[in-house]
Amino acid sequence: MEKNKLYVGNLSWNTTEDSLQDKFAEAGEVISAKIITDRDTNRSKGFGFVEMASDEAAEKAIELFNGKEVDGREIKVNLAQPKK
Known about the structure:
Number of strands: 6
Number of helices: 2
CATH superfamily: RRM (RNA recognition motif) domain
CATH class: Alpha Beta
Order of helices and strands: EHEEHEEE
Strand content: 35-45%
Distance between the termini: 12 Å
CATH topology: Alpha-Beta Plaits
Helix content: 10-25%
CATH architecture: 2-Layer Sandwich
Structural class: alpha+beta
Number of domains: 1
Strand order of the largest sheet: 2-3-1-6
Radius of gyration: 12 Å
């Protein structure tokens, strides 16, 4: 299991991939930030994934942002679970 890929939930519809990447850069180097969108409406589904450059940066991001307010919503941040 990757320890540097994070699930980010309860995102505001105003949050963009760029703003998510900028926010998580406070914890360390970000490799990618992806917000999952509805394929019909192209609207955010309210969650996404952030891949950090290291396990340490991912742990720091969880500590910094889990339960914190981003764009008016209290976000959830934890290690992403592999697809079943």
